[in-house]
Design the sequence.
């Protein structure tokens, strides 16, 4: 077995000690080409320096130009011409913008995007989330990470167009930039010691459930997935789910696709038939998670839910995302977003999520001309 | 020449006018007023005011320069000690620091040092276009976590000594509490932006959208070649009282309320950030943050705003000027009152009633002052049976914060106290881990801007010594 890797030969023209030498590095980012600038560790103390790529070699690991156990890794790749100010590296970093590398429409209201954010991609794990702002005066919205490509340095997000911000995000095209993207935030989903798991996803929550299912699959656990949608047109990620699930059940509210009914139906059947899950993980609308918990409670199966309350900073400062879990105040951004489903006060969480319902309705009406247009 | 016993008043917007806008309350001295106030200074030999300043500004020297009309010279004197003079002139509790030590204050009103500092900084910002020269790099790199008052001060001091400083900020804009916490009418955001630009001009690199403890860890900063790290990550999770009803709709932490208004600009017309424009608001707590929240609620259109505080006016920890301004604007102080429950609307007949779950009032119990506690403040004692209800539709909890857990949970060898504050050597800011220093609210829990700046300054000096001795 071998792996194909990307190596780059880097020169550091600004460093008086080594300006005449070149060093080989491993490049974890995709699309490196000669002339691109990089930030790379240099010398005994691994001081990061700005350098320029002289040569790119993509080859098998056994053909590495420098011993693999000694080679250092590029920390950041700055594509030439990405910023107007080509001469100043600092200008590029401080004016950091996050590129939409790929955009795919999953269904009429759900979109998937790959966003270039190498630092987040290097760390992000299933269950964690990011916060983004589309424009410099926009609001901060949390979105769960749907996948990370450490090689490309991109983070996958999947979102439903529901409010002004997701509308603005959806209006962006491939190749355009968004102004802020920070993460990974929250705790990753616990996977230790779980051999058999049932993942229950509802609607756009399936986007968050997928990386969790993939993670368990990769770790060798038996994965049963139950995903539910309102109707056939809204079904997303079917292929991806079937690839990582030992058993996949698709449900639709109206029976237009898969089985008719809600997700708790097959879950209850499975539990009654004696399926022994180490854990059930429910991700979707709060009401769905509430009923999943009510289904599993009589069987005593540990059940984890992924909460998505209103959030601003996402780093444990504002306290807007608080929930009552086991009678205690918890903060989804630093204590979660995963919580023990048996302990969460769902009714309170549902009530709190409607705090700004009025404001959001007005915002939607303002941003959509259809509402203001008189019917002729 | 006879000493004028009273200090010169600073022009302010009238209370009726300012209660409806977010423009700065105080308008600042004119040059004439500044010179006249400076002339009150006795320029005493023992300089007690300097000892009262956490960053030891050479106060009599800068006041002498003001007297002479050399305002730029006065600015140079202040900025030798302080990285953020325009900010400090506005938000420092001078009455309990430099001004409390003023010799003049023994018989008369002390010299208005804060107002003079503010005047000098504003004069400089308005009249000086000259960029400061970038100091020669000494080749050493230092990472600063957090761009609040302690982080910016530490970064500024190190940059002046030639260090290459990178500041990591979790939010999308630099300034920390100066941006998300303190409202526009008390500290205009373009003043903060100007101070930050000043640091950038000194060569400080500011990286927003990086959460240390998540995006990068302290260990990775060392791997990246930073020789020392300063943690100024600020206060963390807001505290709640643990009384029934705190999860109702219309209950905010002061941090959330102020963040929505200040950082996310919910106060501006047409903002995309929702915030409750409540008619009747109760703010629980008596610190500067409580005053800021109350006055913000008023400006967002509230008819009636209460401050609920369990001790008496004497114990109010807020800056005196803020309390006075709040009272002038019509905010009512319900002192010796402590909330016991927050009441909400509940329509049993119609569960879909949109008003369900919103706050309708706060039940409080009256208190009297008992024995002093370990800090010498008299403890409030509840009077049984004295509960009553104040009708409000919004409650803002402003009873402090506990330090942010993100850094300590991902940094090995960093000791914290039982409140979660990072343990440091007071004289140096050094933590239990080599090369890591800390200061500000991350160490002390919620405190003031100037104390955080003092800590940033102390740490900058210690970091310099640490790196120079290491070689």
Sequence:
């Amino acid at each position: 077995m071998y792996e194909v890797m990307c190596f780059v030969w880097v020169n550091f023209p600004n460093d008086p000690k080594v300006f005449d030498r070149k060093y080989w590095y491993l490049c974890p980012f995709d699309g490196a080409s000669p002339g691109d600038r990089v930030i790379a560790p240099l010398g005994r103390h691994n001081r990061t320096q700005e350098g320029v790529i002289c040569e790119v070699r993509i080859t098998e690991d056994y053909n590495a130009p420098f011993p693999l156990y000694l080679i250092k890794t590029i920390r950041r790749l700055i594509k030439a011409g990405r910023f107007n100010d080509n001469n100043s590296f600092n200008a590029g970093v401080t004016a950091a913008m996050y590129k939409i590398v790929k955009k795919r429409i999953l269904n009429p209201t759900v979109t998937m995007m790959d966003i270039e954010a190498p630092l987040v991609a290097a760390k992000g794990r299933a269950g964690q989330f990011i916060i983004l702002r589309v424009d410099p005066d926009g609001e901060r919205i949390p979105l769960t990470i749907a996948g990370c490509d450490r090689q490309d340095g991109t983070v996958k997000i999947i979102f439903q167009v529901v409010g002004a911000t997701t509308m603005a995000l959806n209006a962006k095209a491939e190749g355009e930039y968004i102004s802020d993207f920070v993460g990974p935030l929250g705790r990753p989903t616990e996977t230790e010691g779980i051999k058999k798991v049932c993942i229950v996803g509802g609607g756009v929550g399936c986007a968050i459930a997928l990386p969790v299912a993939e993670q368990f699959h990769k770790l060798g656990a038996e994965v049963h997935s139950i995903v539910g949608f309102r109707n056939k047109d809204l079904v997303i990620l079917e292929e991806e789910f079937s690839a990582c699930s030992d058993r996949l059940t698709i449900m639709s509210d109206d029976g237009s696709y898969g089985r008719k009914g809600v997700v708790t139906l097959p879950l209850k059947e499975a539990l009654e038939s004696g399926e022994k899950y180490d854990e059930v993980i429910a991700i979707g609308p709060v009401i769905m998670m509430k009923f999943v918990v009510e289904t599993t409670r009589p069987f005593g199966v540990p059940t984890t839910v992924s909460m998505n309350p209103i959030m601003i900073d996402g780093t444990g400062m504002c306290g807007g995302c608080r929930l009552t879990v086991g009678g205690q105040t918890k903060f989804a951004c630093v204590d979660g977003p995963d919580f023990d489903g048996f302990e969460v006060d769902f009714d309170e969480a549902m009530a709190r999520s409607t705090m700004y319902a009025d404001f959001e309705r007005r915002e939607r009406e303002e941003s959509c001309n259809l509402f203001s247009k008189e019917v002729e | 020449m006879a000493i004028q016993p009273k200090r010169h008043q600073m022009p302010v917007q009238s209370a009726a006018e300012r209660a409806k806008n977010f423009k700065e309350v105080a308008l600042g001295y004119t040059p004439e007023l500044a010179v006249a106030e400076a002339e009150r200074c006795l320029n005493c030999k023992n300089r007690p005011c300097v000892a009262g300043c956490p960053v030891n500004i050479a106060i009599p020297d800068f006041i002498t320069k003001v007297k002479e009309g050399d305002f730029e010279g006065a600015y140079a004197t202040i900025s030798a000690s302080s990285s953020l003079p325009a900010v400090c002139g506005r938000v420092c509790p001078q009455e309990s620091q430099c001004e409390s030590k003023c010799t003049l204050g023994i018989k008369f009103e002390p010299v208005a040092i804060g107002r003079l500092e503010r005047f000098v900084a504003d004069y400089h910002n308005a009249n000086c276009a000259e960029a400061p020269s970038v100091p020669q790099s000494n080749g050493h790199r230092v990472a600063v976590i957090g761009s609040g008052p302690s982080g910016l001060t530490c970064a500024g001091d190190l940059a002046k000594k030639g260090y290459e400083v990178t500041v990591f900020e979790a939010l999308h804009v630099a300034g920390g509490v100066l941006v998300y916490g303190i409202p526009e009418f008390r500290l205009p955001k373009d003043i903060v932006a100007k101070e930050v630009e000043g640091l950038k001009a000194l060569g400080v690199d500011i990286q927003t959208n990086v959460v240390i403890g998540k995006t990068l860890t302290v260990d990775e900063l060392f791997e990246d070649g930073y020789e020392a790290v300063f943690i100024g990550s600020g206060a963390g999770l807001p505290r709640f009282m643990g009384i029934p009803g705190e999860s109702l709709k219309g209950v905010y932490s002061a941090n959330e309320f102020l963040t929505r208004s200040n950082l996310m600009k919910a106060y501006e017309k047409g903002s995309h950030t929702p915030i409750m424009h409540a008619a009747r608001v109760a703010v629980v707590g008596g610190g500067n943050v409580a005053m800021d929240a109350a006055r913000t609620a008023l400006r967002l259109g509230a008819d009636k705003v209460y401050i609920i505080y369990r001790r008496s006016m004497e114990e109010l920890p807020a800056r005196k000027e803020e309390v006075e301004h709040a009272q002038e604007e019509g905010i009512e102080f319900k002192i010796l009152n402590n909330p016991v429950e927050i009441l909400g609307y509940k329509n049993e007949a119609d569960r879909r009633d949109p008003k369900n779950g919103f706050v309708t009032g706060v039940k409080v119990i009256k208190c009297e002052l008992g024995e002093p506690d370990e800090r010498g403040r008299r403890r409030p004692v509840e009077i049984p049976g004295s509960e009553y209800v104040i009708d409000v539709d919004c409650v803002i909890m402003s009873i402090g914060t506990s330090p942010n857990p993100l850094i300590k949970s991902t940094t090995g060898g960093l000791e914290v106290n039982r409140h979660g504050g990072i343990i440091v050597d007071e004289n140096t800011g050094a933590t239990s881990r080599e090369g890591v220093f800390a200061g500000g609210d991350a160490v002390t829990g919620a405190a003031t801007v100037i104390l955080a700046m003092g800590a940033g300054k102390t740490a900058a000096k210690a970091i310099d010594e640490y790196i120079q001795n290491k070689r």
